[in-house]
Design brief:
Blueprint (H helix, E strand, L loop, with lengths): L1 H10 L8 E5 L3 H9 L6 E5 L2
Parallel strand pairs: 1-2
Length: 49
């Protein structure tokens, strides 16, 4: 989509800070609970391996 392309172009030129909280796949239920209760900012990511 055009808006996605424009965003990616802008993202390369503007300093951005991301917030990611990683959870092992075995802790998926904890990740969902934390999401429901607003215990992290940004993105929650399940990791495998």
């Amino acid at each position: 989509r055009r808006d996605g392309i424009e965003f990616l172009d802008l993202a390369g030129r503007v300093p951005m800070r991301t917030h990611v909280t990683e959870y092992p796949l075995a802790q998926a239920n904890q990740a969902l609970d934390d999401l429901r209760h607003g215990r992290f900012q940004g993105a929650g990511v399940l990791t495998v391996g």
